[in-house]
Amino acid sequence: MRVAIGAPHGRSGKTTVTLGLILALRQKGLIVQPFKKGPDFIDPSWLSLVAGRECRNLDLYFMNHENLAQHFYASCANADIAVIEGAMGLYDGLDFEGSDSTAAVARAVKAPVILIVDATRMTRSAAALVRGFQNFEEGTEIAGVILNKVARSRHEEMLRKSIENYTGIQVVGAIPKQKNLVIADRHLGLVPAGEMKRNYEIMEYLRRTVADSIDLEAVLRIAGSAGSLPVIEHGDHEDPESIKKVRIGVIRDKVFSFYYPENLEALNRAGADLVYIDSLRDESLPAIDGLYIGGGFPEIFGTELEQNTAMRTSIRKAVVTGLPVYAECGGLMYLARKLHYEGRSFDMCGVLPCDTQMSVKPKGHGYSAMSTIAPNYLFSVGTVVRGHEFHHSQIINYSPSELQHIYQVQRGFGLNGKIDGIIHRNVIASYSHIYAGAHPEWAVNFVAKARGLAWGCTGETSLGSGV
Question: Treating both helix axes as pointing N-terminal to C-terminal, what angle do 14-27 and 42-51 enclose, rounded to 10 degrees?
């Protein structure tokens, strides 16, 4: 069974409804596999929390239809039902054709769609809206509607009659307008689940609201109409015992939490044992052969990061002695000299020859494409690296002669609209987040560098005196 949750536009309530739906389904004893359409780390943190299973991303910018479907089915192993939360509007995508839209993802995995409709200040017009979505793109099956922010019973009755009479689509739920059905957000979206202190209270409220407002049996009938999920053989991904395991440190805590599970699994398959590190509590790096620092919110925890002088010193010393480090976005900010935010400056690791400055408006937002123009140990020269970025910071206080880079921006902003990928000693730091499913060589080459082989890239694998 599988179902996709879409909406006419963003801020319709997809995330809160999806969270409550997963909780209500689990209450019925079902094993739910969550998915999020598109590049996102924050919504998946909540979806993973409520499902008790790691949320997976489905993105047609990174994978073709066949590979995405294979990834979807393989991820559903041992699950009773898959629930896909869409992004933006149902048909919104990167291009005019909506080739990577929520609807396109739903068609790729043959998932019926339940449309969340924000019913604020609308009655009969809701039917026209749903009918337009119903007929807009052939092959997209809108099988149910959930009304959100319904004012009163008379409002609900008018909405139900209009939608079901003019479209033939069943209204499977109506959620009343309420102030409590909101999760706090900040500049990148919702606050990550790991930072919220009232998780249980919030989740229980969402579960009760959905259970009281949505016909779960109708949802299950819709999900079941898609048929059973095919069984996908994972194959033998175990690395040979003869290959020496390397230890890759991963700074994963409430500061740095933006990691695709596929990236971590790819490192493991390539021969890495992952060692998790807390940037706030741990005083030094453990014995590791490489370090991975994902994105997050270092600006929110600037004081705490600065106070942990021992860890910052440990990272700086490890880099000097040659430790391979890969960092993305927030990780780049942590490796810089200083972080400037809201009139304050915080000392960071001092590894990269630059500072970072937060701004109110995003500097980079959306998919990225970076052409590899300089030798490095991750990607061959000429490789176009696809990723995504969403950052309010940029690098400042640097000398161009000291800043070596490996990417030229084709799409996105990167460091300054032209370049991305700082390379310094054995450190590679970028504002672009990589998805391992799109670039399998990333994990293989990073683990190889940590092992000391540095194979997998064409051309020289050194740049300057320290790489």
Answer: 20
Quick: pLDDT tens for 28-38.
999 999 999 99
In a domain, 461, yes or no: no
Nearest Cα residue to 34 out of 13, 21, 16, 53: 53
* Domain count within the chain: 2
Residue 408 phi/psi, 5-degree rounding, is: -110, 130
Distance (Å, whole) CA 40 – CA 87: 9
How far lies 170's CA from each of 162, 173, 294, 449, 463, in Å? 11, 9, 43, 55, 61
Residue-number span of the structural domain to which 220 is assigned: 2-224
Q: 179 and 261: one domain?
A: no
DSSP annotation of 296 reads: E
**Are residues 219 and 297 both part of a single domain?**
no
User: Are 166 and 215 members of one domain?
Assistant: yes
Mean pLDDT to the nearest integer, 54-58: 96
Q: Is 428 left (phi over 0), alpha (psi -120 to 50) or beta?
A: beta
Q: Is residue 238 part of a domain?
A: no
Contact 206, 181 (CB under 8 A): yes
Residues 345, 436 within the same domain? yes
Question: Any alpha helices (H) in 199-270, and if so which ranges?
Answer: 199-213, 216-224, 261-269
Q: 325 near 428, Cβ under 8 Å? A: yes
The predicted model scores a pTM of: 0.88
Residues 279 and 386 placed together within one structural domain of the fold: yes
> Which residue numbers are catalytic?
329
Residues 150 and 251 in one domain: no
Q: What pLDDT digit, counting tens, does each position of 156-202 carry?
A: 999 999 999 999 999 999 999 986 655 555 444 455 555 445 667 87
